[in-house]
Amino acid sequence: GRSSTRRRFVFPRTARRASAAMPGGEKDRVISFDRGAAQQKSVAGFAPNSIKTSKYEWYNFVPRNIWEQLHKFGNVYFLCISIIMYLGEKTPLFVGTIKAFSTLGLLLMMMSITAAMALYDDMRRKAADAEINNSIAKKVSSGFKSTKRKWAEIAVGDILVIGKDEEFPADVVPLFCTGDGGNCYVSTANLDGETNLKLKTAPTATQAMLAGTSATGNGSGSFDKLAGLSGKVIAEPPSANIHDFNGSIEIQGAAAESLGGKQLLMRGTVLRNTALCIGIVVYTGPDTRMVRNSRPAPLKQSSLEVITNGAMGIILAVQALLAVVGAVWHCSFQSDLKGHWYLYPEQIILPEAVGWWLTFFTLYSNMMPISLYPTVEFCNAFQCYFIANDKTMYYKQKGFNNDVGFAAKTRSSNLCQELGQVSYMFSDKTGTLTQNDMELKRVSIDGRTFGTFEPGRPGFNGGAEMDALRNAGQGQAIEAFLEALAVSHTVMATTNDAGALNYEAESPDEYALVSGVADLGWAFKGRRGNDLWVDVKRTGGRATYTVLATNAFNSARKRMSVVVEKGGQGGPPEYMLLVKGADNVMLERTDTKQPVLEQHLKEFSMQGLRTLVIGARRLNKSEVDGFLEGYDKANRATHDREQKLADVAEGVERSMTILGATAIEDKLQDGVPEAIENIRRAGIKLWVLTGDKLETARNIGFSTKVLTPEMTIAIIDEEEDAMGLAEAALGDLRLEQRALMVTGQALGAIFADEGEKLRLLEIAQGCCVLIACRVSPKQKAEMVALVRENVPGSPVTLSVGDGANDVPMIQEAQVGVGIAGKEGRQAVNNSDFAIAQFRYLEQLMLVHGRWNYRRACTFTRFTFWRNMVQVLMMMYYTWVSGFSGTSLFEDWIRLSFNLLCTLPILPVGCMDEDVSARYALDNPNLYGVGRLNHDMSVLKMFHTVSSAVAHSLVLTWVTMAAFPGMDLRGTGDYYTFGTTCYTCLLIAVNYQAVFLTNKHNALTIGSVVLSFVGYIFWLLAYPSNPWLVEKLAPNMYMVPSHMVRNVYFWFCVLAVPMLAMMLDVFISFLYHHFFPDLVDRSRNKVDPGSRDREQAELLSTPESSDADLSQDDGDFALGSEDRKQIDLGDFAQRQIWSTHLRFGKRHHGVLLAGIVAGTALLIMGISAVRDSERSAQVRILYQQSDVLATSIWDRIWQADPIGTRPDEIVLANCTGAAVGVEELCTATFSVPQTMVNPMVYYAIGPFYQNYNAYLRSEVTKELQGEEVSESLREEKCAAVQTRIAPDGKNIVPCGMKATSLFNDTYSIVGYDIFRSTAAWRTDVARYNNPVDYPTRPNTSWLFERYPDVVNESRGVKAEPFVDWMRPSAMPRLWNRYGNINGTFQQGDVVHLTIQSRFPMKSIPGGRKSVVVTELGAMGARHSGFGWILTYSGVLCYVMAVVAWLIPQSCKSPGISSRSSDSDSDASDAESSV
To answer: Residue 310's CB: how many other CB atoms inside 10 A?
Structure first.
């Protein structure tokens, strides 16, 4: 047998599907057995007893998981984008500028992570399946001995033997139980969470036949008596009803006996207080009640998910619009490109507009954040972890949960942030606001009340008064009243190991009543079969009763009754109907008015006590026989048995004599009034939905502070035009003064009319609280749905309850919270979150919910922001790359973006805290940030978008201003420049994450460090690794090494992100000052120099100060056993070292940042300008296009660098020849100042080496001297002109770059120019001539085409060629030509001769210049970058001054001279929204 200590396993969706496979029209199953063994024919075809909750097998894991993941929009989107990219890359449909692997690889990585998590979960499910299926049960074998069998081997019809504390492996009908009268007790905690034991009974016929079996309690021994057992069991088709069962058993030679809920021992229940039970299996595996009740939780989507999905739709539309703009720009720019003789645009199959739209759509595809979904799940997991381990929500008390502490539980991780957005809370009362610890306090009998209610005083104090009347001979009514309470119940009496009597009750009410009357002299002692006995103190004897029928309580009947036969003292038997129930249904079933009793009931209710009315009716023999005939018939019914039994009960429960009423106290939970007050201060509307009377609910409302004396309470009941009267009563009162109460009967009529329902909602919305009384579970769910479906804006609803009757409303609300109370664990098991006490809702919602909302919003906005910045930078770059779709970032570098730029924000999404827990609890109005959705408002999103635009502009254009200096230093190529921009982007992204972080600790700092370390590692592992880079992107080889040697790189990575950061700090300051949220308002009210200094410090209290919030609700401290339930470590308790920094949100921070950034930028800017001005130069313009530039970009690229003086420009004299024919140019100039070892470089532009087709037009293996196929040459060098020379020879190497080599030459009279380019040594080493160079026939070699630049001996290793093959990042080239070993003295006259061969006249706005200059530390003359930094520094100072002046001249909306509390802030914010 299986011990009951085994953990409960929940069967998920797959098990339900298995059960659904049963034919929908299955008839009653008949299980025949003969001589104690099932007949195989009768049990064939039933489901096996094995269960399978795992989803995957080894052969279907990959396809099935892929199929599941493709149900996510993001995955489908990126898969489609990858396919489109591949088509653009490999086919001539359109031009693909992004390699498919860069997106597909990232998608596969993300899907692989998700798949690994799914596989891990499935392996755990498989292990759990194996544990259950391989558990051992005892089956009666053919030799009538018990043999061990695995659970998976159990089949319908098997006879099983279950011992004490063993679990039932299938649904079983008991044949014999060792308890008195065939009774046994089972624990159903695994099934319904209820802790009280249930009484089950074996059929009388089989119990009698098997009585006296020799088997022992452990299941061993002989079962010979089974040999005489033959018959059949008829059972209803499998169902999910755990409270009822319809069937019958026919034993040979005996009449059929009906089977009900007491004759079904369900799988998962445990045999208690009974030595042994023998039963026959009727349902197995997926047909069992347990599996059929295994339902997946309703799919709930958080509001933030809805907003995020909507934002993704908008982003997709923006992406498509940007693609349209890009396609239009490209098509309009084509006329300018016609003059660029070196470019051969790609030919595509699709129409030009469509094809280029696809080009730009795929280029901007990263605007959709592919990493958002998996990283959100990661953050949600950590948020759940902190909730589950918060010791301030850990409850431990003797007698609760078997003395085991109960920690908060999370079952819906995606709703963690939803806890911070609740607008409407729906709460049960009993067990939720109260302890569900019932105690009899007062009674009303025969027009008199007994007992008084004194809060806090235990017990019933009316016993002495009752005894006085009984002793005076006036106690007949009292005895009848107590007798009814002692008999009319389903309580079971058991004895513990010490022999003491224990009551096992199905509800706390019954326990309170039975134990209460026991103290008054009518002590229920136990029951055997249908007999029960009561010890009557007054007579000193024992009264015995036979329960002929029990009419059970349900939410529709609201009453329970028993028909009993009381044994007479030698006289005829006495038949009685004893009933207890709700006052409204009981008073309807009496023939006499009860004005005094009704007054007493009202008095009890005013004191907040729960009331029940007790009634009785004497029955004669014929009435009993008639009733029992109908009862037995209904009880034998196999369909609609419950309703038929209710109909039979209705016929006898009439014309009752009212014996009196009881009043039971249900004590309030600790901290409920304070919690409710704070919840209301948070702006949450509280609706209490209870089954109590209106007066009881009203008084509980006052005691819990749901209602306050200042409120005007309107009541909607059955009165005509009750809603009109309620509207009139509420009048023009303020929201906080309006309360509404409504009865369940009135709701029934209202919900039948759609117009009336909406009218009720309108009234309720105008009230701060609503209490609905006498409502059914269905009506509770309907109230939640009323708000969800009809209130504009789809407010977040939360339902909290503790019992099974609360499950419908818990599942209907967006957020369901279960209270672990005394009504079982149904609410807990069906909730999204579970706690032990109502007061923990403060910590759950106002602290964790609010934190999680802000974390999730910050994380989401950051993710969108960083992707927007990246894509906008790529878009700007298309403007300077001929609108050809060139990506600013190399594909493999860009591949690291999502990982490296996600790391720094993860700690923010997991554990950031803008205020301490104590401050959040002391200022409930701060909850309005989430309730009003401030962090995802239009204003916030506009701030995010504007920040992204500002960052992208600065990161792109300021870095472009540094290009001339980078180019002269040999790092202005496309690959190095793009990597520099990417580095600046990475720094800015990490800064932004730090800026958004409120609470910094080792993890937040470490994540930033890890991001940078990861980037450095990637640069070392990829571009610096010759083997890997050769496989991926050869032109990236040693890019990082050359990049970091350039001083402009360090200026860029320091200055460019710093400027972007300062702009963001200033904009953020303005936003927080002029548009403050509730936290900003709260901060602005605190003056650290005033008496509120303590409050100011509390705002940023280190988390360790929250330790005093922890409370131990038990009589013993937390120990080692508690550490199994909750992690008490510093990390789990959020007590690691941390500090709050609000950089940029206060003017002091902006002032400091402005001074620091301004000073740094000024230093760098002035240094750059001075270095530029020190570099003397002479610019000789010797060719200018005959075609005017029509594009603004072409005009920019033909301009001289900033800082060039007119006297430094010299025009050369050229002897004219036609375009494309060599020209001879001469120029004479006077040296403006002394130049030592001057450098000569050429400047041409516009020249689009960064045009996408130009960049890709090369065959790497051919450049490395390898022989390549003609098909590869055709693929890489698509234009015939770049592959075949006019004379028909093969051009080697081929491509646009190799066929457009700059071949002008310069000479200076009296000086030698030593050809020394900026070609990288690593590139020279990579390039090689083929083995048959230069003898290969029919080949056009470089030295033949460009003899003045490339000599035969060097071939492709010639430095001018190698330097040219590293394309410029901008449409302007400043390439070094050579150096002059000598000195030009100031005033020297220099004669320069130019052989002009490189054609520029056909290019619109084309210009060629040769520059003689000195090469300084930062290049040559180009002051633009330095002046930009200088002006930026001044701007930073201006922003600092403005930030300092603003608080002096205009106060933030949070600072007010009037006295206002936190609630006014919340209302102000709400009205502004």
So the answer is: 11
* Residue 428 annotated as catalytic: yes
Cis peptide bond N-terminal to 907, omega within 30: no
Helix (H) or strand (E) holding 626: helix 621-636
Nearest to 548 by CA among 486, 609, 630: 630
- CA dist 242 → 188, 238, 1199 (Å): 10, 11, 85
Look up residue 42 and give its amino acid.
Answer: S
H helices present in 22-60, as ranges? 40-43
Q: For residues 1096 and 1089, give the distance between their C-alpha atoms in angstroms, rounded to a whole number.
A: 9
User: Any idea what DSSP says for residue 222?
Assistant: B
Angle ∠(1390,1391,1397) on CA atoms, nearest 5: 135
Q: What DSSP character marks residue 94?
A: S
> Which pair of structure tokens corresponds to residue 1377?
């030509």
- Pull the structure tokens for residue 541: 């004897």
- Do the strands 1313-1315 and 1235-1236 form a parallel or antiparallel pair, or are they unpaired? unpaired
d(CA 980, CA 959) in angstroms, rounded, equals: 8
Round to whole Å and give the CA distance between 860 and 803: 36
Give yes or no for a contact between 308 and 860, defined as CB atoms under 8 angstroms apart.
Answer: yes
Q: Given CA atoms 296, 301, 305, 309 in this order, what sign does their dihedral have?
A: positive
Mean pLDDT of 116-125: 83
DSSP character for 1334?
Answer: T
Helix axes 1047-1074, 1147-1174, angle to 10 degrees: 150
Q: How far apart are CA 1200 and CA 1210, in angstroms?
A: 12
Of 428, 891, 973, 1122, which is the active-site residue?
Answer: 428
CA distance 691 to 701: 14
- The phi-psi region of residue 570 (left if phi > 0; otherwise alpha if psi is between -120 and 50; otherwise beta) is left
- Residue 902's H or E segment, with its range, is none
pLDDT at 1142: 64
The whole-angstrom separation of Cα 229 and Cα 222 is: 15
CA distance 1427 to 655: 101
User: Residue 980 corresponds to which tokens in the numbers above?
Assistant: 């520099």
Are 398 and 783 in contact, with CB atoms under 8 Å apart? no
Residue found by looking up tokens 């159903």 in the block:
188
What are the DSSP calls for 1152-1213, one per residue? HHHHHHHHHHHHHHHHHHHHHHHS-EEEEEEEE-SSPP-SHHHHHHHSPPTT--GGGEEEPE
Q: Are strands 422-427 and 796-801 parallel, antiparallel or unpaired?
A: parallel
pLDDT digits (tens, 9 = 90+) for 717-747: 877 778 888 888 888 778 788 889 998 888 8
1219 to 692, 1144, 1299, 1403: CA distances (angstroms): 99, 59, 17, 11
Q: Are strands 1373-1380 and 1313-1315 parallel, antiparallel or unpaired?
A: antiparallel
| Cβ-contact 1263, 1327 below 8 angstroms | yes
State the CB neighbour count (10 A cutoff) for residue 1137: 11
Residue 965 scores a pLDDT above 80: yes
Dihedrals phi, psi of 1417, to nearest 5 degrees: -60, -30
C-alpha distance from residue 941 to each of 633, 860, 935, 954, 961 (Å): 68, 11, 8, 20, 30
Q: SS3 helix, strand, coil % of the chain, rounded to 5?
A: 45, 20, 35
Nearest CA to 634 out of 649, 623, 654, 624 is that of: 649
User: Coil, strand or helix: which one is 543?
Assistant: strand
For residue 71, what is the enclosing H or E element?
none
Q: Is 1393 exposed, middle or buried (0-12, 13-18, 19+ CB in 10 A)?
A: middle
Residue 1066: HSE in the Cβ half-sphere, 13 Å Cα cutoff: 26
> pTM for this structure?
0.82
Distances (CA, A) of 856 to 304, 314, 912: 8, 19, 10
Residue range 523-572, pLDDT digits in tens: 999 887 788 899 998 888 888 999 999 888 876 788 899 999 987 656 67
* Alpha carbon distance 1335, 1354 (integer Å): 14
